[in-house]
Specification:
280 residues; mainly beta; 4-stranded mixed beta sheet; 4-stranded antiparallel beta sheet
Length: 280
């Protein structure tokens, strides 16, 4: 089973991992120690953090915001839940993939009401909506009337859609895209992968697995899908120079579909990887 935890794996860098239920340990000057967060209920991967480099102090801002938005059920702007199970609906449906590391929770709504709320990197499932002409709105969940995006579109019958949130709130660059998702299942013995690029400060990224690769994409875009053999796989995300930004060893279930979210801030050396698994 694929681990849906927030994880970071970057070549050549030291990994710090927050583990729920552990005891706290300090990060003192010159140290590189594991960081344990108590009773937050979800792990947070921190790619690289060196407290002796004050020029990287903005990293603390990004990490602090991410920890609040991802881990806390209340306070720091936390809130919202995808709900439901991981099985794909046979109806018209929408989900949210929230990739803005400092963005507050968002809510997606249609004229009949709110469809879904989501925090940064929160695992969500598809929620059924009415088919036909719809106005789909994306607002900041905790700030009434603050709109991120709006889409006037035809929602097709038995079709699934992803609202992908990316950008940085602190720079006023928070945005959202509405993507139509394929509903055809992978062939027996295969699984399907797709990359969502929300890593600030990074150029084109390429998804690579099983000696296959999807064309590179820019921040705010998603890649073409890759159908790869089910079972043990290594999922790599590489930059335009071929450098591995993220590498995950996973067990892909047969005929599953996995969205790979890469988020964070490359300039601050903070990189998050999250997997969203969907089954028919």
């Amino acid at each position: 089973m694929i681990n849906n935890e927030l994880t970071t794996c970057c070549s050549g860098r030291q990994l710090l991992r927050a583990r729920p239920g552990g005891s706290g340990s300090d990060l003192t000057a010159g140290s590189m120690k594991p960081l344990d967060l108590v009773d937050f209920g979800a792990p947070l991967g921190i790619d690289y953090f060196n407290p002796t480099r004050p020029e990287k102090c903005n990293r603390l801002y990004i990490l602090g915001i991410a920890m609040c938005l991802t881990l806390l059920p209340a306070g720091c702007g936390g809130g919202g839940s995808g709900g439901g199970d991981s099985r794909r609906t046979e109806k018209t449906a929408i989900r949210v993939i929230h990739g803005s590391v400092d963005g507050t929770p968002v809510q997606v709504a249609v004229p009949l009401g709110v469809v879904q709320k989501a925090r940064f990197a929160e695992v969500t499932t598809y929620v059924p909506v009415e088919k036909g002409e719809q106005v789909v709105t994306v607002d900041r969940a905790n700030s009434s009337g603050v709109r991120v995006a709006q889409f006037s579109t035809l929602l097709e019958d038995k079709t699934e859609y992803t609202v992908f949130v990316s950008g940085e709130a602190r720079t006023g660059d928070l945005s959202a895209q509405l993507f139509s998702d394929p509903v055809e299942r992978p062939e027996s013995g295969f699984a399907r992968l797709r990359l969502y690029h929300a890593l600030e400060g990074e150029g084109a990224l390429t998804l690579r697995a099983s000696e296959l690769s999807a064309p590179g994409i820019r921040r705010g875009q998603r890649s073409d899908s890759l159908d790869v053999p089910a079972g043990p796989q290594t999922i790599d995300v590489v930059d335009s120079r071929g450098t591995v930004i993220s590498s995950l060893a996973v067990e892909l279930e047969e005929r599953s579909e996995v969205a790979v979210l890469l988020a964070g801030n490359a300039g601050l050396e903070v990189v998050f990887t999250k997997l969203y698994t969907d089954f028919d």
